[in-house]
Amino acid sequence: MKDTWQKQLQNLLNCDLKSQFPLARSLNRKLKFFVGPTNSGKTHSAMTQLKKANSGLYLAPLRLLALEGYEDLKASNLNATLITGEEQIFDEDAAHVCSTIEMIDYDLDIDVAIIDEIQMLDDDERGWAWVNAIIGCPAKQIIMTGSVNALDAVKKIAKYLGEELEIIKFQRKNRLHLMEKYTSLKELKPHTALIAFSRTDVLRLKQKLQKYHKVSVIYGNLSPEVRRDEARRFREGQSDILIATDAIAMGLNLPIKTILFTTHRKFDGVSKRTININEIVQIAGRAGRYGFHEEGFLGATSKDTLKHLQKEYDKPIRTIKAPFKVKISAPQLEGLSSHIKTNSLEKVLKFFNENMYFDGPFIASNIGSMIEAAKILDKKNNLKMEEKYMLSQAPITIKSTIILQAYDSYIAAIIKNRVVRYKPSITLPKKALTYRDLLLVEDEVKKISLYLWLSFKLPELFPDNIKASITRASFNNFIEKSLKSNLIDDRRNNNKNPEIKKYKKYRKRF
188 and 55 in contact (C-beta within 8 Å)? Predict the structure, then answer.
């Protein structure tokens, strides 16, 4: 009996990843890699091929890009369906689908699929989705687009699969110049993007510069809708300066002529460090957008930062190396939970990470956000393992009290099988006055995204998807208006600041 148990456990712990996607294995797939730097036309060429196909799938790294792909297909008079974790726009006549990569349907047999930004397979949190898509996407032709640092990785995975790989190289369409002198904030010219690495720094720069320029801002905590509207303002000339974090590094096509780094240090979630060549190149490639400018420029707003850019720019790009990280699947989770006799999601995830062996260039990996969610879920009674697995992948952040409170109440409702109506946590005044005011609304929009995600997974319990979507639109409009106004930096809640004291009473309205 013990030998049988051990053998079954060994079978669970030894995984041939490609065998988990039988439809993909039956299609005699051909792989293509459109490889090149930003601004080389690789994604445009891939979309052109997708439009010619009888059926197609565009897998995007962001909801914003999935929407842009959807609108591109519609503008080309093609029926299309949009599927993300928060919204679905179905067209029964559509043979083309645009989706965020985590929402891929592995049972949808199609002719051509695009896997965009393939270098994301190296991402600690989401890289597994790109690995799974390369291996399991059920399309006769797979077109991957991405940077040269992913070339070796794509070759290794193609060899593991035993599938034909064609590499098509793209060159940047115009020159990108590294500037010799730094540019002060007083010398900024239109079509310039300033890069900072925190929301606070972006807002501080906005406050400083909007006296002299029309400014757009883009940072990670903004919803895709607001980012898109801020990008539109810059694209249409309603603003002449863009201030952004590295959130602009992926997919946003903007008429930027010059990119200036305001710092060469960033906090990466663990520590503050200097930025590397891969990060610099990915962001800098957005300068000199083809069709808008004949050339692009890369620089900095200080001597020290420019010196770092010049030093890093001569280094070779870091190649993505095997093994590639793989997340636990639902069947693996159920099997391991049964065999090691635990209902603790955290324990199963750690067991998977320490003991799973993959046939091929892969390694078991724990996703940090899943571990954090597991710690919360394991404290709840009467949750099945499959429910924990689903809820551990919800879009939450432990940094936000609003979202954690909502997550906790939603879990309680799921346990009791109780219907949850969407209710906003805050009441909107005419505009935000401080950084904190704005952050509260940004977090409320994320709470709405969590509700919409759950409404897709459990529509009977979370039925207010229309109300939540309408509320999100009004909150996004509020954020847009607030970003155009003067905001007070109350990050430290300095009671000696007369402006902070003036608005203390006001903040209670939230």
Answer: no
